Amino acid sequence: MRDAAPTTIYLKDYTPFGYIVDSVHLTFDLAPHATRVKSRIAFRPNPEASDKTFFLHGEELKLIRASIDGAEVTPDVTDKGLTASVPDAPFVWEAEVEIDPGNNTALEGLYMSNGMYCTQCEAEGFRKITYYPDRPDVMSTFTVRINGNLPVLLSNGNPTGKGKGWAEWTDPWPKPAYLFALVAGDLVAHSDGFTTKSGRHVDLNLWVRPGDEGKCAFGMEALKKSMKWDEDVYGREYDLDVFNIVAVDDFNMGAMENKGLNIFNSSAVLASPETSTDANFERIEAIIAHEYFHNWTGNRITCRDWFQLCLKEGLTVFRDAQFTSDMRSAPVKRINDVIELRARQFPEDNGPLAHPVRPESFQEINNFYTATVYEKGAEVIGMLKTLVGDEAYAKALDLYFERHDGQACTIEDWLKVFEDTTGRDLSQFKRWYSQAGTPRVKVEEDWADGTYTLTLSQSTPPTPGQPEKLPQVIPVAVGLLGPNGDEVRGTEVLELTDARQSFTFEGLAAKPVPSILRGFSAPVILEQDSTPAQRAFMLAHDTDPFNRWEAGRALATETLLGMITRDAAPGSDYLDGLLAVMRDDALDPAYRALMLGLPTQSELAGMLHDKGVTPDPMAIWTAVETLRQATAQHMQDLLPRLHSQSLVDGPYRPDAEQSGKRALGSAALALISRLDGGTQAATEYARADNMTLQLSALSCLLKSGKGEAELAAFYEQWRHDRLVMDKWFGLQVALASPDRAPEIARRLTEHPDFNWKNPNRFRALMGGLAMNHAGFHHASGASYELLADWLIRLDPVNPQTTARMCSAFQTWKRYDADRQDLIRAQLIRIAETPDLSRDTTEMISRILA
Ligand code: ARG
Ligand code: ZN
């Protein structure tokens, strides 16, 4: 571990910067190993700030010269930045620094990817480009001149000059440095245009490396739809003459909303039917929308400090989810989001990495781009909208944009617009931002003389640093069904604000069956003692599509838990209820495909742990396999009909309708493969003409212990395509049988195409291993050791990606003592690695704590 104690930054310590920046001029002389960056920055004292220390962040910079108002100065330089004495009046700071983008493997600041220059500055990467107050509350206009002998030279804002070997860009909108971007390289554009509602013409370009032109059309359409949707639904118009998107192969995250110049991981933008699955298309559409929506929620209104990250991320995730619901199927989107929340956010909220939606301290902010900040942050906004109603939500958002345009804001500012719009006191609601952990809501029922009483109690388990929790405001959407399955009370929202609270429904003819937490109206764990027969009743009758799916999910879960803990047989309520749903051709195929899903093995392990049972990964794996087999047998006659859904009419379209059909067909093929050993999957593989069907057939073959030949053929067919090769690496590991997973993963790390410095490739392989629950938890500890080896190897190269991947270990305390010992040994081995990055040090120490 590093010798220097890591510094912790606290929300409560916020103070404004001593100086205001009026303008920034940057000149880049590009060279792979010696790029020169000249800055000319107009500062003036900030009357609101008491601390007038002139400190500029700067890391890994070689300072060539600096001057103030034209006079050379010699600042005090450390490895974190510099301080200088400055006049108590407006002044111009100039500096020249040299940087080495060609050796920047951390992919933060200015770096190179396949010969192309690009940047990633969020959260604190700009300080690796030049000396600057690199904090989001310092906003300025930027003018950027790029000198470099490359065909395409891009930065933020509008183009304001261009010649041979140079280009100038001016961004008229004041912005924080984290939204700065520069791209230079040999790129080609897929171009289009958009006319905003007030008649402004915007040039749209999607820039890619030559050869990728054929993968741009879908992304461009998604962009145009997003621009239109934000005008129609939020009244938000685009505000520059040009909007550029660039695809980059080496990128730590999904994408980045730099003003007017979004930079995307190529996996989050490039798409074609032959190389991308339906799920890829949907994800790409959502990410393009997300980054575009940031133009208002993030860029025009930004964050005061990084503790407020959810201000832009929670809101923008919420907005992109609304967009996807409008473009596709709202119930399917909601169910998918809840599946994701349970798979990624619940483990975080219920383990050593738990933190509030608005964290109160951090060592490395990059470690807080989490499912809690993003996805739970979006759930919190959804609850707010449910509580105040759609109309008040729209009014509050209008006020937010009007009041705070051009500002760097806080969660307090955000809640205030809702308080001012509705007159509601949101102080208790604010606990959603400050208390970590997933609330449990327990249900009790009472029935007497036509009155039905629902008593709800809430409690939130302790999380690191928060032993006691106060009650939160939980909107619980409830409907009541009568004994014949008719809805006797439509959905109403109960506001649970106390630790325990009763709600009565009067004038009922018979004891109703409650449908609670419809639409998953709050990110909580509902504890309701229902019998399998009651669940089956809801599965057959609930009018709320989410809760109908949830009833099936609960039946599946309870069956699996019974099989694991009591050696019970697969439940007939589940099998019969599922069969009835699958037979109902009036139901959306996408929805039926979701019904066929099961909780993940990791989720089951978490539930067992919650019940005080130590999860045995192999027992969980066996139960899931057994239930799958029983399901296949139970639905045998129906499977060919379900499978034929994937043979759609007409050319491939990645829309909701066709992809829903393929999802159902693929789910059916997986069950068929359990009965025929993969015979039909081999036929389907041979005739697949799109990646969705090709990959689903290949998955079935691998799961059947076959597919060697197909795997080799797939490699030959796609070895030239990085994004498809990521799938090839990931699939083999994720679907390997538990006993073979560590060895298959290890062998693949020796493959010549395992370019481990590429985050997508590293994540494909190591993430695939972590996803293979029983394989990752192989009793030998071989997978733990393999992952630790590679984390140790990657850390000095790319701390961010290393630190993120550490979360594979976050659930370690659920497992038995032998496995805990094996994992602890690996965590300690990582922690004791000399010169471990701040990112990984923080993650490992939190996981170990
Ligand atoms: N703001 C980006 C988004 O759209 C994510 C950037 C995250 N970058 C990072 N280094 N953690 O969500
Ligand atoms: Zn975002």
TrEMBL record:
<keyword id="KW-0479">Metal-binding</keyword>
<keyword id="KW-0031">Aminopeptidase</keyword>
<dbReference type="Pfam" id="PF11940">
    <property type="entry name" value="DUF3458"/>
</dbReference>
<dbReference type="InterPro" id="IPR001930">
    <property type="entry name" value="Peptidase_M1"/>
</dbReference>
<dbReference type="GO" id="GO:0016285">
    <property type="term" value="F:alanyl aminopeptidase activity"/>
</dbReference>
<dbReference type="InterPro" id="IPR035414">
    <property type="entry name" value="Peptidase_M1_pepN_Ig-like"/>
</dbReference>
<dbReference type="GO" id="GO:0006508">
    <property type="term" value="P:proteolysis"/>
</dbReference>
<dbReference type="InterPro" id="IPR024601">
    <property type="entry name" value="Peptidase_M1_pepN_C"/>
</dbReference>
<protein>
    <recommendedName>
        <fullName>Aminopeptidase N</fullName>
        <ecNumber>3.4.11.2</ecNumber>
    </recommendedName>
</protein>
<dbReference type="Pfam" id="PF17432">
    <property type="entry name" value="DUF3458_C"/>
</dbReference>
<feature type="domain" description="Aminopeptidase N-like N-terminal">
    <location>
        <begin position="36"/>
        <end position="179"/>
    </location>
</feature>
<feature type="domain" description="Peptidase M1 alanyl aminopeptidase Ig-like fold">
    <location>
        <begin position="437"/>
        <end position="529"/>
    </location>
</feature>
<dbReference type="Pfam" id="PF01433">
    <property type="entry name" value="Peptidase_M1"/>
</dbReference>
<dbReference type="InterPro" id="IPR037144">
    <property type="entry name" value="Peptidase_M1_pepN_C_sf"/>
</dbReference>
<keyword id="KW-0378">Hydrolase</keyword>
<dbReference type="InterPro" id="IPR012779">
    <property type="entry name" value="Peptidase_M1_pepN"/>
</dbReference>
<feature type="domain" description="Peptidase M1 membrane alanine aminopeptidase">
    <location>
        <begin position="218"/>
        <end position="432"/>
    </location>
</feature>
<comment type="similarity">
    <text>Belongs to the peptidase M1 family.</text>
</comment>
<dbReference type="InterPro" id="IPR045357">
    <property type="entry name" value="Aminopeptidase_N-like_N"/>
</dbReference>
<dbReference type="Pfam" id="PF17900">
    <property type="entry name" value="Peptidase_M1_N"/>
</dbReference>
<dbReference type="InterPro" id="IPR042097">
    <property type="entry name" value="Aminopeptidase_N-like_N_sf"/>
</dbReference>
<feature type="domain" description="Peptidase M1 alanyl aminopeptidase C-terminal">
    <location>
        <begin position="533"/>
        <end position="849"/>
    </location>
</feature>
<dbReference type="InterPro" id="IPR027268">
    <property type="entry name" value="Peptidase_M4/M1_CTD_sf"/>
</dbReference>
<keyword id="KW-0862">Zinc</keyword>
<dbReference type="GO" id="GO:0008237">
    <property type="term" value="F:metallopeptidase activity"/>
</dbReference>
<dbReference type="InterPro" id="IPR014782">
    <property type="entry name" value="Peptidase_M1_dom"/>
</dbReference>
<keyword id="KW-0482">Metalloprotease</keyword>
<keyword id="KW-0645">Protease</keyword>
<dbReference type="InterPro" id="IPR038438">
    <property type="entry name" value="PepN_Ig-like_sf"/>
</dbReference>
<dbReference type="GO" id="GO:0008270">
    <property type="term" value="F:zinc ion binding"/>
</dbReference>
